Structure formats: structure tokens, C-alpha cells
Amino acid sequence: MMLLRSLLFELFLIGSSVVYSSLILLLALVAPPTLLARLGRHWARANFAALRLLCNLDYRVQGLGQLPDEASVVLCKHQSAWETIALRLILPLDQSWVLKHELMRIPIFGWALGLFQPIAIDRSAGRGAMKKLIAKGVDLLNDNRWVIVFPEGTRVAPGARHRYGIGGALLAERSGRSVVPIAHNAGHFWGRRSLVKRPGTIDLVIGPTLTSRGQKASDINLAAQEWIESTVAKLPDPFGSETGRRSPQGLNVAGHPASHGKR
Fold first, then answer.
1. Which of 34, 47, 146, 192 is most buried (most C-beta within 10 Å)?
2. Considering the domain boundaries, does residue 48 fall inside one?
3. What average pLDDT does this structure show over 51-63?
């Protein structure tokens, strides 16, 4: 039954992605960018409703009140595809993502993705990719757009660790903007290479804002990594290990956070 429910959700995810992407591409000819961003958020909300209905998978958020007022660099743990949907809904509306350029080639979805001012990186470009990230990232931040970075560069299974790339921290150093670290345990419920979506509640924690003023990129990156990894280790692991059975204090259910649309 769990596999069937997961398959139904996967079909919904694919179908909704095609429908919303097509609508965004059509409206891009006449609609303002804000409306397109709201459609992107509505896509995320629709998929989370489907997750609850079909897979009995919900989420809760701690730390929304810690988000700074000005656009910042977000460094987020990467365990599954779940957070790529969640951040669209949880964070302020104007977002630009650092992502691999291959995604832009996906018909319809990739074309629509290009309308949200992503920083598409060719990983084989070396220093050129880093220069692009910094130059475009600074411009986007100055335009009051949040820049979302997965510093691990790839999805990492729960309990495993991967080196944090310096790009996001270097962007923060060069721009003088703050860093917002985000931890979660989505990988326990939505595996990185698994079709199955396990029922339960994903915990996402927004950490304290890290200043970049007077800080080296290496120090910023280390501080973000230490906070993210230590927080992930404390989050519930509902399917077995001893490390995650203690629930963090003060988690607030935020399945439909009314404040999101106001940012």
C-alpha cells in the first residue's frame, strides 16, 4: 500500500510540474515576475497537500521568526527532493537557486525554471563556475532576492557526511550578506534514490543568522556546517537509530504558514 501511495504521489508530482510549468511559461509573456513566483509557491503547496493526503507525510518548522529582513544566502542540508519543494514554500517569495545547468535542459520544467533567475552552474567549469556564482549572486542579493545553496552539492543519505563546498560562504563574504543555515531530516522519509515516501512528520529547523561581516569564507562555511550537522544529529530518526529519538524543543507545526505569502 505504501508503494502504491508513493507511486500515485510521484504521478501527481510529475503531472503538476508539467501543468504549472506550462502555465508559468504562458503567463510569462504578460504576467509580472511576482505572479510567476506565487504560482511556483502554489505548486509547492499543492504537492505538500498531495503528500499529506496520499502518503500521510507532513512537516513542521522551527525558527521562522529568525529569518532576517534582508535577502540572505541560505545554506541548506540536502538529503532528498523534499527540500527542493519545501524551501519554495517556506522561504520568502523572491528566490534564486544555485543548481546544475543540466536541469535547465529539461523540456517545459527546465524552461520555466529559467524564469526564476537561477544560477546555473557547470561543475566542469572550475573557477569559471565560482566566478559566475559570485558575480550573479551578488547582483541577485542586491536585487533583494534570496540565494539558495546546497553546499554539499548532492543529496547525502541520513547519517552520512559530505564535504561542504565554499561557494555559498564565499558569496556571503563578498556580498556582506548574512547566512541562514537550515537543517532537516527529510531523508528518513523521502530517500535520495527511493520511490517510497514513508508516513510521518519531517522536522525542518531554521538556524540563527550567521554574519559575514569581517569573516572569512572558510570560517563562515565551517560555522554553518557545524550548526547544520549538529542540529541534524539531534533531529528525530523515526525508523531506528538511537541518535534521533529526542524531539527538538519548541517545534511549531507550519503546514500552512500564513506569514509566508507576506514576504
1. 146
2. no
3. 98
The residue with cell 527511493 is 194
> How many other CB atoms are found less than 10 A from the CB of residue 105?
10
What is the model's pLDDT at position 101? 92
Give Cβ neighbours of residue 26 (< 8 Å, ≥ 6 apart): none
pLDDT for residue 170: 97
Q: Are strands 200-206 and 179-184 parallel, antiparallel or unpaired?
A: antiparallel
Single out the residue of 185, 178, 218 nearest to residue 75, CA to CA. Answer: 178
Residue 29 maps to a domain? no
CATH of the domain at 222: 3.40.1130.10
- Of 90, 92, 19, the closest CA to residue 60 belongs to 90
Domain count, the chain: 1
CA 131: distance to chain centroid?
22
232 inside domain: yes
Contact status, residue 155 vs residue 169, Cβ threshold 8 Å:
no
**Model pTM score:** 0.89
Residue 132: count of CB within 10 angstroms of its CB: 17
214: left (phi over 0), alpha (psi -120 to 50) or beta: left
Q: Which domain holds residue 181?
A: 57-262
**Is the residue at 142 inside a domain?**
yes
Cβ neighbours of residue 62 closer than 8 Å, sequence gap 6 or more: 203, 204, 205, 206, 248, 250, 251, 252
Averaged pLDDT score across all residues of the chain: 91
Q: What is the pLDDT of residues 160-205, one digit of tens each?
A: 989 999 999 999 999 999 999 999 999 999 998 899 999 999 999 9
Strand pairing partners for 60?
A: 203, 253
